[in-house]
Amino acid sequence: MSSKISVRSLVGYLIKQSQHALRTCMDQQLRRLDLTTSQYALMTAIDETPGSSGAELARLCFITPQSVSELVRGLLEQKLIERTSSETHGRVIEVRLSSLGREQLRKAEMLVRALEEKMLEGMTLKQRSSLSGMLRLCVENLSKMDGES
Predict the structure, then answer these.
(1) By C-alpha distance, which of 21, 62, 24, 14 is closest to 42?
(2) What is the rounded CA–CA span in Å between residue 30 and residue 23?
(3) For 34-75, what is each residue's pLDDT tens digit?
(4) Which contiguous run of DSSP H or E holds residue 84?
(5) 11-144: CATH architecture
């Protein structure tokens, strides 16, 4: 009898499987608003951290600065964001949500919150809090390893 553990029972695999399922459902839901998950993530980052650089936005969204530039172009075309000159740094161009962008982001947030609620269905508040804490600890443990390489 083999004591080999199935990859499907490993925590890392289950996290990846959950992430993939969540992303697929987010893509489907956000498509109703003519948005992608990446656009939603970028709009959220812009809303939460106004005046951030492209590199900072890329880090927040887990994408490359080049991808941020492409997404910004698309959001500008949809008139969901605006570019303005920085009031404090002369040549710096800041990106902000337009009023249409804020409206779309609120609609998207409602869809994503409903999806997260569905994902966590059947869990008590204590279980949800515990899951959040455990995942946060996993991230912290792995982040510590970044410097060890």
Answers:
(1) 62
(2) 10
(3) 999 999 999 999 999 987 888 889 999 999 999 999 999 999
(4) strand 81-85
(5) Orthogonal Bundle (1.10)
